[in-house]
Design a protein that fits this description.
single chain; 251 residues; mainly alpha; Outer Surface Protein A, domain 3; 2 domains
Length: 251
């Protein structure tokens, strides 16, 4: 067998996932290759179960094992760092809703994966209050606040996804008094791990606008339009305390 390395790697992946790989027939016909294939699949399944602990709590170990196996058979990892594996698992669970019957399950999976992304993100510079010294209100309103790489947020409607995720992940009992309402969440990764807190609809809209490259003035308008009763000063103070932003830019 004599082929370029890249072509061999592609054929090897095809063979692992039982797709046609005629160039490797002599290799794939060996009994040891089946053992290797099963080992790779088991590693992918273990990674999914580790990356989505809340899902396993909600559906049980057996159902999670089956779902993770089905996903791993269809979608191989595209990154050697398996904490990044499962980016499409939430969408996969949406397609399986008829079998699990939990309309909020996919969104809980999204939160699990946001946690993985926040935990594994590169550390980048952070905006500090001292950076704002001497700036006028006009300067601030025409500046750009970009969220750091380790920050994730989302508004989940109509389910209390943050509460479901927290109880599932931390093994807490579900309270019958918990209101079944939409919730938003902010996750921030750092040297001490990942912290999270509730985030109102206006806060999520504000961060969406900041991430889209809008000025602070425009982003604040988006937040107020989404939630007219929003206390924007309080929101900005909480986001600053959570170390959400990179240093200001004006371009």
């Amino acid at each position: 067998m004599n082929m370029p390395l890249g072509q061999f790697q592609d054929a090897f992946i095809d063979a692992l996932y039982q797709r046609p790989a005629p160039a490797l027939q002599s290799l794939t016909g060996q009994a040891a290759f089946a053992v290797y294939r099963n080992t790779v699949l088991a590693g992918c399944v273990d990674a999914l179960r580790a990356n989505f602990p809340s899902i396993e709590t909600l559906v049980g170990a057996d159902w999670m094992q089956e779902a993770a196996t089905a996903y791993a058979q269809q979608f191989p990892p595209d990154d050697a760092r398996l904490i990044h594996y499962g980016a499409g698992f939430a969408a996969f669970l949406e397609q399986l809703q008829a079998s699990h019957g939990l309309p909020y399950l996919a969104d809980v999976a999204r939160l699990d994966f946001y946690w993985c992304e926040a935990f594994s993100a590169s550390e980048d510079p952070c905006l500090a209050l001292t950076d704002l010294a001497g700036m006028t209100a006009s300067d601030l309103m025409h500046s750009y606040l970009a969220p750091r790489q380790s920050v994730r947020w989302q508004w989940f409607d109509p389910h209390p996804v943050l509460s479901l995720w927290r109880c599932s992940r931390e093994g807490l009992p579900w309270s019958g008094a918990q209101p079944w309402v939409a919730e938003g969440v902010l996750l921030c990764g750092g040297l001490d791990g990942v912290s999270y807190q509730p985030l109102e609809a206006g806060g999520c809209a504000f961060l969406d606008a900041c991430a889209a490259g809008h000025t602070l003035e425009t982003a604040s308008q988006c937040a107020q339009q989404r939630q007219p009763d929003l206390d924007f000063s309080d929101l900005l103070g909480r986001l600053m305390q959570a170390r959400v932003f990179r240093p200001l830019s004006f371009a």
